[in-house]
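Input record (one chain):
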Amino acid sequence: MSHGWWTLGRVRGAPIRVHWTLLLGALVWSRFNIWPAFWLAFAVLILIHELGHALVVLRYRLGLSEIAIHGAGGYCRHDQPGSRFQEAMVAWGGVLAQLTLYALVRATLVFVEPPASAPVQQVLWVFTDINLWVAALNLIPFEPLDGAKAWPLVGMLAARWRKRAAVHEASQRRRNVQEELRALEQLDTRSETPGQKTDRLVRELIERTTQPKDR
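The corresponding structure, as predicted from the sequence alone:
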């Protein structure tokens, strides 16, 4: 242990460190009750959140350097700065990991009746209700919370969708013009001079491509 930190393990060479203040954070969330099962589940929840960040960091090869959890939450550090999109994805990684845990627990409870023991109920409480509260707090759009970097992803995805829609529309227009040209080429123009044929084809093409389509 160094300066209150304890190294729990490593992920791809990056240390997973735990600070003693994590116990204080768990105590606050347990409403100052002496519930060891709750405290342990809370520590696991925070670790899952940070591992969610770490998975996205590894996905984008940003150089995972450290995972830490403490009384106020935790952090996941990486060596290389990512793009705005990548940083937003990293920010969402923690909450998505929590929501995955929530969904798995809820799905399990549909088929399995949990024991009525107090420790089990405390663990389930952490992985469901407390889980959602922690996720909601993390998504508040203010530094240093994840929401400050996470929410801009919505605008970036919307911009990407609009760009793809514009490209698709332009491609569709090109296909329509090509189809009209092929249709015009099938017309009988043997009685026309080259100049008359060109003029008529241009007029036909303009008329066909500018008239409103039936919806």
